[in-house]
Design brief:
Radius of gyration: 27 Å
Structural class: alpha/beta
Largest sheet: 9 strands, mixed
């Protein structure tokens, strides 16, 4: 109560503090204080004490007007400590909401009410920390934020997102950005899972929904990619001594990585969302990978395009909710196999229109050697950036080393459309 009164006094004494306030009307427990705060926010052109009192009178809140006048007359706090008062009030608000969520969960479980109460509680707990984000900005604030983003990019050589592991791709995308849904489409056997492994094989804490492969198979790919260990030799245990050394070293490093895998083959959308929330809440994952969109189950009896639409919409919302990038693989229609130009476009994605609506970035992957054994472009994989809300679209040629499940930047001595330069 004391912190709420102090916040109101500071805002009456020094209205400019409203620009830095981290509390919202919902954080107040006393109706009178909440009414005063809302009256301040309703005054679009700024306010003084007289204006606030008049606004409260217009809202038929005479008692709140009297309360505001009393608080201002008694000088109950120092504006110099405004941030501290807001912090104290916010912490109490968070504690109060968390206790209510815990109580509701306990009652629902005790009474055996139907529904995903644990998942709902996790979502509500995670949303507590997001409720103080301001969504209304002056142009001055927006410009300042834009300048700070450019300065941050300068400090990290243009890399503002999570690196993809491929320099040229990072130059186009700036890495993977928080709240973005990134979709990577390809026909089977083109290496899209290997590309995902290559991107995820870093120190960044990540979650992986692997509806296509079980955890052991996926871990084997990570070991092969990280240690440059021949995958076939791993499967047959025919590694040479130096390969065993690389294998053991890679396994030891990966065992300590902050990466989490769910390999449920027929995972439902609701379970996927719940799992991602748990990983974020318990392990603070920075990025989520999904293999792949068309394998995720939704409601029974839903048409395929509707199912894909539900999944992509949920993944985009999940990225925004968790404030992380979500990178999802997707299948490409087989029609592309009959074309002369087999590099997939946006329209070649299965149920493309539903994916195109939600995705911030859409890329497609193609390896000419997978369809033409005589090609001069052996070991080259082409990534086509078909949609990019943050920058240019275009083409990135990369090196693909299939036996290691590795994607790398193309060496300078290799031409993009031929053999050695």
């Amino acid at each position: 109560m004391r912190a709420e009164e102090a916040v109101i006094f500071c805002l009456l004494e020094k209205p400019s503090l409203m620009m830095t306030a981290t509390v919202t009307a919902d954080d107040f427990t006393v109706d009178g204080y909440r009414n005063i705060f809302q009256a301040m926010t309703e005054l679009q052109q700024g306010y003084d004490v007289a204006a606030v009192l008049s606004q409260l009178e217009r809202n038929n809140l005479t008692q709140s007007a009297q309360l505001a006048e009393s608080i201002f007359s008694n000088a109950v706090a120092s504006p110099a400590r405004f941030d501290k008062h807001c912090e104290e009030m916010k912490n109490e608000s968070i504690r109060r909401r968390a206790m209510q969520i815990a109580f509701d969960l306990q009652m629902n479980l005790k009474e055996r009410e139907k529904g995903d109460h644990v998942g709902d509680a996790i979502q509500k707990l995670m949303q507590i920390g997001q409720t103080n984000r301001n969504h209304s900005h002056t142009m001055k604030q927006a410009v300042r934020a834009a300048v700070e983003a450019v300065e941050a990019a300068m400090e990290c050589d243009g890399m503002v997102g999570i690196p993809t592991g491929l320099k040229e791709l990072d130059e186009c995308l700036g890495g993977f950005h928080d709240t973005d849904l990134v979709v990577i489409g390809a026909r089977p056997a083109m290496g899209k899972t290997a590309l995902m492994v290559s991107m995820a094989n870093s120190d960044v804490s990540c979650g992986i929904i692997s509806a296509e492969q079980d955890a052991a198979q996926l871990a084997a790919r990570f070991i092969s990619s990280h240690g440059s260990v021949h995958s076939q030799k791993m499967r047959t245990a025919t590694l040479q001594p130096e390969e065993w050394t690389r294998f053991s070293s890679a396994a030891a490093v990966l065992a300590n990585r902050q990466a989490y895998i769910n390999d449920e083959g027929s995972i439902t959308l609701s379970k996927l969302v719940q799992q991602a929330r748990e990983w974020k809440f318990n392990h603070d994952i920075k990025i989520l990978y999904v293999d792949y969109i068309q394998k995720i189950k939704t409601r029974e009896g839903v048409k395929k395009y509707e199912q894909v639409g539900e999944v992509t919409n949920a993944l985009k919302n999940l990225a925004k909710e968790l404030q992380i990038p979500v990178v999802a693989l997707a299948q490409v229609k087989r029609d592309v196999d009959s074309r002369e130009d087999k590099q997939p476009k946006i329209g070649d994605l299965s149920d493309a229109s539903e994916i195109e609506k939600e995705a911030d970035v859409i890329m497609t992957l193609y390896r000419e050697e997978a369809t033409d054994s005589e090609t001069q472009r052996q070991g080259i994989a082409d990534i086509s950036i078909e949609k990019n809300r943050h920058g240019p679209t275009g083409h990135v040629a990369t090196q693909f080393i299939g036996k290691y499940f590795q994607f790398k930047d193309l060496p300078s001595n290799v031409a993009q459309f031929g053999g050695a330069a």
